[in-house]
Every structure is written in C-alpha cells, then in structure tokens.
Amino acid sequence: MISMAVKIYEEYKNIALKPFAEKLQSEYYNAIEISCAASKLQCEKIKSIEISESPLQYAVLCLNVIAEIEKHVSNRKQIYMPYVHTLTEKVRDSHDCTNCSGSCKINHNMHILDLNATNEEMTKVLSRLQLSTLPLYSETMYPDAYRVLRSNMTMLETNLTELFFLENNYLIPKIAEAQKNINAGNR
Predict the structure, then answer these.
(1) CA 28, CA 17: separation in Å to the nearest integer?
(2) What is the distance between the alpha carbons of residues 52 and 28, in angstroms, rounded to a whole number?
(3) Domain of life of the organism in this record (predicted)?
(4) Residue 90, domain extent
(5) What angle do the packed helices 30-48 and 53-75 form, to 10 degrees?
(6) Does residue 6 fall inside a structural domain?
C-alpha cells in the first residue's frame, strides 16, 4: 500500500521546497482549517440537542481534538511556512551557515525535530479519537448529527494522515536537503 501511495505522490518529488510547502498550505492546511470549522459547528449542534450521553461525550472529545488539530495547523502556517521561505532565500543567496554562530545550526536542527515530534503527537491524538468513536453497527440508533460529525472527523483524520505522509516523505527531506545546501542541520 505504501508503494502505491508513493507512486501517486511521485510528482511531489520534483517540486522545489517552497512551491511544495505552498501546495501543502493551499491543499491541506487551509482545507483542514475549513473542515475543523465545520466539525466544530456540528459538535455545537450535538451539544444543543437532547441526546444520549455517549454522542455528547464524543462531541466534547471532538472539540478537544479539533482544538489540537487547529493548533497543529496554525503551528505549521505560522512557524514552518516562514521558515521554509527563509530557508529557500538562504539557499538562493548561497548562504553558508558555517560562517554563522553555533545557534544557526541548532535552530535548523530543531525545525526537523519539531516537525517529527508534532506529527507524532497528532497521531496519538487521532488514535484517542478512534478509540472513543461509537460503532455505527451497534443496535443503538444514533442521531444524524452524530453520524455527520463522525463523517467529518473521519475526513479530518484522512486529510491529516495524508498530510503526515507528505510531510514525512517529501517536506522533511526537502528541508533537510536545503539545510545541507547551506551547510546547516544534519550533515
């Protein structure tokens, strides 16, 4: 399955760092923010109707997960997009980090470590969500609002899983290559 996914995304290998990061922003970060907003509205709808405790608890958990997803995406947009732009400029200008103070290398290394760590954190958050999802095949009838929320959350999970794949297999290697080009980061 992974080899099939790699084949589907093979075109991304040839896209330069900055256009690739901008593609992630327009096709994933922004789309995930929109999905989060729709899912929050659905959670509020569930909280406003009288339903059993289980769907209500799920809606509250979803609100917590959505807040973490929003924080994750905001982090990408506010920290990593500017970093990619700066890194791209340094590569373009033939910057050499060996002429910088030691803090330059530490700063570059921290970006890749943090990207990996935050993806791992989000994977755990999504696992928590999966464990709390009520099975639709049970004999209990759940309101349509719950089904819509569950569908929204599944779409968010799918988008994030795809995003993690793209970041881990394309973005991080592109950042590492750019860092190598300016003699920063892991050599």
Answers:
(1) 16
(2) 34
(3) Bacteria
(4) 16-181
(5) 160
(6) no
